[in-house]
Specification:
alpha/beta
Length: 231
């Protein structure tokens, strides 16, 4: 099977480099996170323009709780700000908003805001935007296994197991983009990345714009995706 000429249906992004971007400018780390919001907006709008079906952004991992408390609080404040500020854009472009991860562990205020945003955009049929929040690929597999053990004993295959993931209707990513040059997947989509194409750019996330997304898409089009088959 070779669909290398087709655009990716689902793009996932590990948004890395906010801290390095700030450090290069002698700024506090939070300034890098603030600048990263502009990159989120630019990328979302570019995906809408390019008619990408699904975009998933790795926004906050379970490991991020280990960061200084003031940085975590600032990140949660920025999330709250983003949801308020981007609602008009979501409705304008018919974007539906979703989350994956252990979001039940977030603060009641953030949970309420996430639920309200998801509800308000539920009928939209454009870009399917997902934020991975308090997310861990290992935890997703563990949580799926726990739910599986609570069900009746039936033959287990990939399709049945996938049905217990955080969002079983979300198609596997075709393209994973990681910014800031790091060559690792950082506990993201461990089940879903089995046949995903990976593109790494040295651009720090706050500087990521449509032209960088287009570079990733051009690289994707040159790939020959065999899904384990012969050439």
């Amino acid at each position: 099977m070779d669909d290398s000429r087709n655009p990716p249906r689902h793009i996932a992004i590990i948004m890395d480099g906010n801290g390095r971007w700030a450090r290069q400018r002698d700024l506090p780390r939070i300034e890098g996170h603030k600048a990263g919001i502009d990159a989120v907006r630019a990328t979302v709008e570019a995906c809408v323009e390019l008619d990408i079906g699904y975009l998933t952004l790795f926004a906050f991992s379970t490991e991020n709780w280990k960061r200084p408390r003031e940085e975590v609080d600032a990140l949660m404040g920025l999330l709250d700000l983003y949801l308020d500020r981007e609602m008009e854009t979501m409705m304008k472009h018919h974007i539906s908003f979703h989350t994956i991860g252990r979001t039940h562990e977030l603060s009641p205020g953030i949970r309420a805001k996430l639920a309200a945003t998801s509800s308000a955009t539920a009928a939209n049929t454009g870009l399917y935007l997902t934020l991975a929040l308090n997310y861990s690929g290992r935890y997703e597999i563990i949580d799926a296994a726990r739910k599986l053990l609570e069900t009746s004993p039936e033959p287990l295959d990939e399709a049945r197991f996938t049905g217990f993931l955080y969002n079983p209707g979300l198609p596997d990513p075709d393209l994973l983009i990681r910014t800031s040059g790091e060559m690792r997947i950082s506990n993201f989509f461990l089940w879903q990345l089995a046949y995903c194409e990976i593109y790494v750019t040295s651009v720090h996330w706050p500087d990521f714009r449509k032209e960088h997304l287009l570079e990733a898409l051009q690289d994707f089009k040159r790939r020959e995706r065999r899904f384990g088959g012969l050439a």
